[in-house]
Amino acid sequence: MNRLQESLTGRGSGRSRGPAAKAKNQKATIKRIWSYLKKQRLSINFVIILVLITSVLNILGPLMIGVIIDNYILPLDIEGTIRMGMLLAAIFIASSLLTWLQTFVMIRASLKTIQNLRIELFEKMQSLPISFFDQKQQGDLMSRMTNDIDNLNFALSQSVIQIVSSVLSLVGTAIAMVYLNWILAIVTLLVVPLIVWATKQVVKRSSMNYRNRQRDLGNLNGFIEETISNSEVVTLFGKEQQTIQQFKEANEKLRYSAMQSEIVSGLLGPTNNFINNLGSGLIVGVGAIMATNSLVTVGVITSFLTYARQFFRPINQLSNLLNTFQSAIAGAERVFEVLDERIELMDSPHSLPRRSLEGNVEFRNVSFYYVKDKPVLKNISFQANAGEIVALVGPTGSGKTTIVQLLSRFYDVTEGEILIDGENIQSYSMEHLRDSIGVVLQDTYLFSGTVRENIRYGKLDATDEEVEMAAKIAYAHSFIKYLPEQYDTLLESGGKNLSQGQRQLIAIARAILKDPDILILDEATSSVDTMTEVHIQKGLNNLMQGRTSFVIAHRLKTIENADRILVIKDGEIIEQGNHNSLMSLDGFYAQLQKQYHQAEI
C-alpha cells in the first residue's frame, strides 16, 4: 500500500516521472501528429475536395438569399421565388450530404491513424525494460493507452475538415462580402483582431491546465488500478476508509485541474459569441444608415448578416480547434514520452545463431545497481556447470531474485559480465535467450482463458497431449481433472477462481511444457502445502534432470540435494558449497538450517 500512498503524495516514482507542468514544444508535437495522419493521404485529399465543394455551396447560399429577396420577393414574383427557393434548397441539401460524407471519411482516417499509433505504443511497451515499469504506475500507462489517445482521436477527426473548411470559408466569404459591398466588408473585419487576441489569451492559459488534467487523470487511474489489484490487502488490514479518503483526495485533484482547464477554455465560446454579436450589430447599424441613403439594398444587408455569421463561424471553429488541440497535445506528449523511451536492452547486431544451450553459466565479478550508489549485488562470481542444480539461499532482500533476473536479462549488469556456454549473455538475441530459459516466479499470474490455454502459453504450438503431460509431471492434473470443464475450464483474470497453490502448479506445468535448457525456480513451491510440495518436487526432479537449474527457496529442505548452494547476504556471496560442506562450516547457512528446523518444530 505504500506505493498507493506515494502515488497520491508525489513521493513515489510513478508521480515524480509524470509529465512536467512546464510548456513543451507544441509545434514539434503537432508536426509529429501530422506525420502519423499524413499516412492516410488518399482519404485526406478526398476530404479536402469535398470541403472545397461544400465551401463553395455554403458561399452560394447567402448570395442567392439576397438575390431572391431583391429580384423575386420584393417585386412579388411568386413563381420565380418558388423556383429559386427550390434551387436554394437543393444547394443546402447537397451541402449537408457532402458535409456528412467528409465527416465520415475523416473519422475513418482518424481512427485508422489512432489504431496505428495505439499499436505502435503497445509494441513499444512490449520492448521496454522491466525498470521502466518499475518506475511507472500501471494505471497511468493504461491512461496513456486509452484516454490520452482518445483525446487525440477527437481532435484528429475534426482537425483537417475544420482547418480546410475554415480557411476556404474565410477566403470565399471575404471575397463575396467585398463583391457585395466593400464598406460593410470593412465593418465586418473590424472585430477580427479582437477575436484573435481573445483566442490567444485563452489558449495560452489553458494549455498548462490541460496537461495538469491529463497528469491527474493518469494518477487517479493508477490509484484505482492498484487499489483493485490489492483489494484483499485493503480488506485484510481494514483500510477501506483510509483508501476511500485517499481516493477522494486524488479525485479532488482531478476535479480541480479539470475545473481549471474547463473554466479557462469555457471563456472562449461566450467571448467569441459576444464579439460576433458586436460585429452583427455594427453591420446592422452601418447598413441601416447606408440603406436610408440608398447606398445598399435590404437584400444585400440580409446577405451580409448571413455572411457575417458564416465569416465568424470558421474563426470560432479555429479558436475552438486550438482549444481542443491543447487537450490533444497534452495527451500526445504523454504518448510520445513513452514512444521516446530508450530501449535499454538491445540485441547485438552480431547475435549468435540459435542453438540449444548446454547450460554452463558463469557470473564474473558482477555488480548491479537499481539506483546509483546503492549496489544490490557486489562483485558476485560463481560457476554453474551444465546440468547442475544451483540453490540460492539468504535473507529477504539479499539479492537472490536479482541474480536470476540478470540471468533472464530482465536487466543488464552494471559491472562485470555473465557468460552462458562461454559467451557473454549479451551475445545472444533476446528471443533466443528467453526461449532457452524457463522461469517460475514467486508471484504467479494467469490470463483470462482456459486452463489449457494458460499452460500452452509456455509453448503455443503444443498439442493437447503435450499440455496434459506437462500438467501430470507438475502434478497439476490431479486437481484439473476435478474442475467443471477440466482443461477447458475458464479462469478469471489472474486465475482468481483457483487457489494460490493451484495457480502455482499451472505455472510450473507451463515451464515444463516449454522444455527449457536452463530452469529458474523463484520460490516456486512457496505457495503450496507440504503434501503438494512433495508431489511437485518429484516432478521438478524429473524436469531438472540434465538441465542447469537455479532454485530460490525459503523451505531449506527442498534444496538440500542441490549440487551447489550459494549463500547470499547483503548482495554478496558469503558461503558456497553443497549442503554437507556448508553444514560442516557451521556458518551462516548452518544457522539458517537450525532456525528453519526450530520453526518447523
Automatic annotation (TrEMBL):
Residues 361-595 form the ABC transporter domain. Its main location: membrane. Keywords: ATP-binding, Cell membrane, Membrane, Nucleotide-binding, Transmembrane, Transmembrane helix, Transport. One of its GO terms (cellular component) is plasma membrane. The keyword NAD does not apply. Residues 46-327 form the ABC transmembrane type-1 domain. Pfam families: ABC_membrane, ABC_tran. One of its GO terms (molecular function) is ATP hydrolysis activity. It is found in: Cell membrane. This is ATP-binding cassette subfamily B protein. The lineage of its organism: Bacteria, Bacillati, Bacillota, Bacilli, Bacillales.
